[in-house]
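Support request from a user on the community tier.

User writes: "When I paste my structure tokens into the form, the page sometimes reloads and wipes my input. The last time it worked, I copied everything first. Here is what I submitted, just in case something in the input itself triggers the reload:"
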């Protein structure tokens, strides 16, 4: 009986220790996020001197929010950027959605690439390969089709790209939308996902997210371009690792 009491006490201490550790991670993430994500930068050079940005949008299939998500990229407040929509399957119904937006915003530099290019086992890299090769700007933003961009977000990312910085990624923030999957997404990204990513960044651990990631193309080209990372399924991790080692 006494042995059982000690076992329960040890288990209680262990569970309490885990809870305390998890609670501290939450506090650290909140404090670090407030400090890191609340700083608003202003351009130190004229807007026309800011570097151009190529936005790669890998698109697969149509979800209820695809049109709404993609449309936000046509109203970004940034002096020069191009939108490169990459669609693997020529029968994908997403093509009609993208074409309607391209026609709606003829003044926005946008292109559609269909078919992709097989350069390795990573399907996302295969999808973006042709768009990447056609990019005319040195700054590359890889942005998933599920991302909704605020007007000033690209400007903020570029301004954080200092001389000693090769990669800037965004923390996902889930919008309130209808549907069970949207609720689950919001719960995950606003709790466990955000906590671990912020904590990892605080300790300089490679934990970049490839959902919305701004990178210097010339550095990627030095080791063979985006196709070099097609050999990895977690291409975002190895891209970040490459920039860290640079």
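"...and here is what came back when it finally went through:"
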């Amino acid at each position: 009986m006494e042995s059982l009491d000690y076992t329960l006490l040890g288990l209680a201490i262990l569970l309490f220790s885990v809870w305390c550790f998890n609670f501290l991670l939450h506090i650290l993430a909140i404090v670090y996020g407030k400090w890191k994500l609340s700083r608003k930068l202003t351009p130190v050079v004229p807007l026309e001197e800011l570097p151009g940005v190529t936005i790669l949008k890998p698109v697969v299939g149509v979800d209820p929010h695809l049109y709404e998500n993609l449309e936000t990229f046509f109203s970004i407040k940034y002096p020069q950027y191009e939108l490169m929509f990459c669609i693997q399957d020529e029968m994908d119904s997403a093509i009609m959605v993208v074409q309607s937006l391209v026609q709606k915003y003829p003044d926005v530099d946008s292109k559609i690439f269909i078919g992709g290019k097989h350069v390795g086992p990573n399907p996302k890299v295969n999808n973006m390969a042709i768009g990447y090769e056609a990019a005319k700007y040195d700054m590359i933003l890889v942005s998933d089709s599920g991302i909704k961009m605020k007007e000033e977000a690209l400007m903020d990312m570029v301004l954080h790209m200092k001389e000693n910085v090769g990669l800037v990624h965004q923390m996902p923030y889930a919008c309130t939308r209808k549907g069970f999957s949207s609720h689950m997404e919001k719960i995950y990204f606003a709790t466990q996902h955000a906590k671990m990513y912020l904590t990892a960044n605080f300790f300089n651990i490679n934990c970049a997210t490839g959902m919305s990631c701004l990178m210097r193309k010339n550095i990627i080209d030095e080791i063979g371009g985006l196709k070099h990372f097609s050999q990895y399924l977690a291409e975002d991790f190895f891209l970040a690792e490459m920039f860290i080692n640079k």
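Agent notes: The reload is a front-end session timeout and is unrelated to the input. The beta strands are 53-59, 81-87, 110-114, 139-143, 167-169, 212-216. The radius of gyration is 21 Å. Escalated to web team.
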